[in-house]
Queue: 2 jobs
Job 1
Amino acid sequence: MPIYFLEFFRELFMNLAKLIVFLIFSFSSTGAFSYGGGSGGSEKACDKPRFTEFTPAHLTVVSAQSEFTFMASALTNPKTIDVNVKKLAVEIEINEMSTGYLVTGMLPDSLQNTYARVNITATGTNNCVANDGWLLKIE
């Protein structure tokens, strides 16, 4: 086999290898940019409301009809705050504070000798939805 023939195949193989590497990097980087991984995107991350200062604390033993409170951040739209305990709707009182909203409610009297999660759902002022809550032991 002549030497120029071997040289031709070596050159062809090297060019194909470079092409394959180029295509792999091209497709992997365009995929990242299509999902917002690149700079210059116009969408902002969703800044959800936050819930803090749960009282009584997580896993505290309480009696039926006990009062509970928590703070909702200033990003929360107070009209959208919804609280339920074991899928039972709870009437709440919302007071505006300097750092957000103080939410107060009472555990349903029908819940006794059980664990129950206080579920919170609210929408932020930027329409981002947040869910949170904590577990209490009701005697």
Job 2
Amino acid sequence: MATTEDKLRDLARQILDLPEDELVALLPKFQRSMEKFSSMEEWKEAILLYFLINGRRVMNIQYSERHNQLLSARFAKDSSNLFKDFLPPAGGKNKSGSSSVLSKGPPKGPPRLKPHLSLVK
């Protein structure tokens, strides 16, 4: 025999399976039923349904915030290694043996040609 907790967990799983956009569309209907108070049964159901849907919305907001925090922390950790080959380590030398790739100056490319401009009168 299923306990009350088992029944509530089943209900939670069923609510999680429902499309959030459809649930959100039902909120105004349940809010009107709460405010109208036409019958005791309808009012009780409206309150429970309204707060179940809002509970799902709060859960999704908290999940998104937590997910974004984890991504930000991971990015911060990963981005700290982005320039490790360009900056000298604590010993002063990088992998190539020089003190810094940046100390070599800008990369040498092909020689620049002077533009051939003539004045037009």
